Amino acid sequence: MNKLSAVEAERVISILDEAIFKMNILSKISVDVDGGLMNRMNLGGYEEVCQALSQQWKVENDHRLSSTSRSTNDLSATNDIEVANRITSSTRRLCREIAGSPGASDLIFGSHRRSVPPPPEVQSFVTYISQLKDIMYRKLSTTVEEETLNRNLLYDLTERERQMSENRDVLREQLESERGEKEKVTLSLEQTIRKLETELNNSTQANKNYLEALAKEMEETLERSSVEHMSRMKKLEESLESLEKKLMEETETNHERELKKRKEKSKLEAAVASKVREYDTDMLSLQRSMEDMQSKMEDETIEYRNLREYFDKLDEDSSRRLEEERILAAVRDREQKALDVMAKAATYFQAVVRGRRARMDTAKMKKGKKGKKGKK
User: Mapped to the 3 state alphabet, what secondary structure does 141-194 carry?
Assistant: First the structure.
């Protein structure tokens, strides 16, 4: 940066600093008349600043009155311009007086009379001027190469910001899509949970009702069963008494029967003993007869062995004769079949010969007819 640029930069910065200082001073001054501030100014010997402050409050009061009256009455544009010029000149005078009296600015900044902060428009204006000062200083204090470098750097930063914004938009879209899918899944899961909770509540209520009904039914069943059990016990006791009586009676009758049966048994044993003796005698006689028959069988066996060879030869002759008759019958069957085949062959040959003769005769007859026709 050359010397001329440095001087110009300092000049612009000093102007902006003065403007910021004036705006800060004006933002600290109350809109209404501050008597305490006026007294401190008078005690400090700042009569000119007090006069400028009084003039400023008077002009601003006139401006407010004119604004309120303008809402009801139509004033000319000339009056508005005059009021604005008066406010401008009064404000410039006040700022000059305060700038020429450093102690007055300290009194204004140290005043605690104004508890209400300045309007946001004034604060924003002061902030914008401060930012403008920084920008102008940076612009005027940098060289062409630095400006080019800054411009390239700003371009790179802008491109990166643009890419980042695009990536941010893409990521935001992906996030929105995933959020929508997750919300759908969550919604479906919530619906499933609600459905399962409803089914669980219904099942719990149904089970509770079923258990209550089952308990009630069991109580009723137990009551009926107890009543039936008591009645059955009474019936069984009564039947037991009757059965005991019957048992006594049956025992007596069975005792009598047993005595009778024992008497009959003794009689039957005596009869059986006599029968056994008779059986023994009969068996001895049968054994003797069986021994006689066995001796006869041995004699007949010897005789059978002697006659067996003769009968075997007779059986062999009869079987040989039957086999010869069977073979002769088979030969006769074959001869008969051969004769049948020969008869069929002879019949076939005769039919063939007769057919040929018939065809020859018909051919001769056809030739004879053709010759007769030719002679005619």
Answer: HCCHHHHHHHHHHHHHHHHHHHHHHHHHHHHHHHHHHHHHHHHHHHHHHHHHHH
Query: 347 or 98: whose pLDDT is higher?
Result: 347
Look at the pTM and tell me if it is higher than 0.70: no
The gap between the terminal CA atoms of the chain, to the nearest Å, is: 159
Which conformational region is residue 73 in: left (phi greater than 0), alpha (psi within -120 to 50 degrees), or beta?
Answer: beta
Of the two residues 75 and 311, the one the predictor is more confident about is: 311
80, 111 in Cβ contact below 8 A? no
| Residue linked to tokens 């938009």 | 169
For residue 159, being part of any structural domain is answered with no
> Which letter, b or e, does each residue of 29-66 get, where b requires 16 or more Cβ atoms within 10 Å of its Cβ?
bbeeebeebbebbeeeebebbbebbebbbebbeeeeee
Higher pLDDT, 129 or 229: 229
Residue 157 confidence class, pLDDT cut points 50, 70, 90: confident
pLDDT in tens, 163-191: 888 888 888 888 888 888 888 888 889 88
12, part of any domain: yes
Compute the average pLDDT of residues 20-48.
73
> What does the alpha-carbon distance between residue 339 and residue 46 come to, in Å, rounded to a whole number?
179
Range of the domain at 99: 3-142
- Residue 85 pLDDT > 70, yes or no? yes
Rounded CA-CA distance 264/266 in Å is: 6
Instruction: Enumerate helices (H) and strands (E) in the chain, giving the number of each.
Output: 7, 0
Q: For the chain, what is the domain count?
A: 1
DSSP line for 288-349? HHHHHHHHHHHHHHHHHHHHHHHHHHHHHHHHHHHHHHHHHHHHHHHHHHHHHHHHHHHHHH
Reduced to 3 states (helix: H, G, I; strand: E, B; else coil), residue 117 is coil
- Does residue 315 lie within any of the structural domains? no
Average predicted confidence (pLDDT) for the chain: 79
How many other CB atoms sit within 10 Å of the CB of residue 311?
10
Which CA distances in Å does 48 have to 42, 109, 191, 260?
9, 18, 80, 167
In this model, does residue 285 exceed pLDDT 80?
A: yes
Residue 116 lies in a domain: yes
pLDDT, average across residues 266-271? 86
